Amino acid sequence: MEKKHVPFISEVETFNEVMGKGWQNRTTPTIDKADADFVINFIQEELDELKQAVEENDIVGVLDAILDITYVGLGNGALAFGLKDKIEEGYAEGGYKGGCKKLADFRAEQFNTIYSNRC
Fold first, then answer.
1. pLDDT at position 98 over 80
2. Distance between first and last Cα of the chain
């Protein structure tokens, strides 16, 4: 089965596989505390670099930081949480507002899947 190409995310997926970290390329939505902490700390590091670049009036540093935030947040984040296949649809729904609606629908779907056998 051929993998779906999602800009930014697929490149990180390939990088993870080449670097022997393919296990981080989750396909099922999940939250693993260790991986979540990795992504959060990595994003924070890049946000700190963005702040520093702004303070130093370094436009090249700003661009670098924005690209790194995108790579880490969208790439590593989507893969670590198993959300690669949800990103484009959520974005296409109209940005944040539409993404929130899709997220709410996704949460309801997950809730029903988890708890349907318990009721």
1. no
2. 36
Extents of the domains making up the chain: 7-19+27-82, 86-119
**What's this model's pTM, rounded to 2 decimal places?**
0.69
In the block, which residue shows the tokens 């303070």? 55
The per-residue pLDDT for range 13-27, each reduced to its tens digit, is 898 899 888 888 998
Number of Cβ within 10 Å of residue 11's Cβ equals: 13
Q: Which two tokens stand for residue 49?
A: 């670099």
Q: Mean per-residue pLDDT for 86-95?
A: 73
- Write the burial class of residue 62 (CB in 10 Å: 0-12 exposed, 13-18 middle, 19+ buried): middle
For residue 13, the tally of other CB atoms under 10 A from its CB is 22
**How far is the C-alpha of 109 from the C-alpha of 61, rounded, in Å?**
41
